[in-house]
Amino acid sequence: MNKGIKSMLAPSAEVAVNAQGGKQSRETMRFDLLDAEAMMALAGVLAHGAEKYGENNWRKIPAKSHINHALVHLFAYLAGDTQDDHLDHAFCRVMMARAMAEAAK
Fold this sequence. Notes:
Elements: H1 3-9, E1 15-17, E2 23-25, H2 36-53, H3 63-78, H4 86-103
Antiparallel strand pairs: 1-2
Helix pairs in contact: 2-4, 3-4
C-alpha cells in the first residue's frame, strides 16, 4: 500500500474540523469525484477478465505488458475499430500497469 493511503488511514492521520465542529480524518482523496460510469466499466472489464483468465491473473503480468496492451487498445480506438470497448480496456490496462509498477517498488 502506498504512503499516501497509509497516512490517510493511520490512527495518527491529520484531523479536520468542519463548520459544525465535527471531527474526522482530513480528506486527502476525493472518491466522490470519480466518474461512476467509468468505474462501472472498469469493474465490468475486470469481471470479464476474471471469468476468462481467472481472478487476479493480471497480477502475474508485468507493467510493461499491460502498457503495451493499453496502447493497442488506444490505437485501435483511434483507428476507428469498434469490435471492442477499447477505451474501457485501455483504462483497465493502465490501472493494472500502475498497480504492478507500485508492487514492483
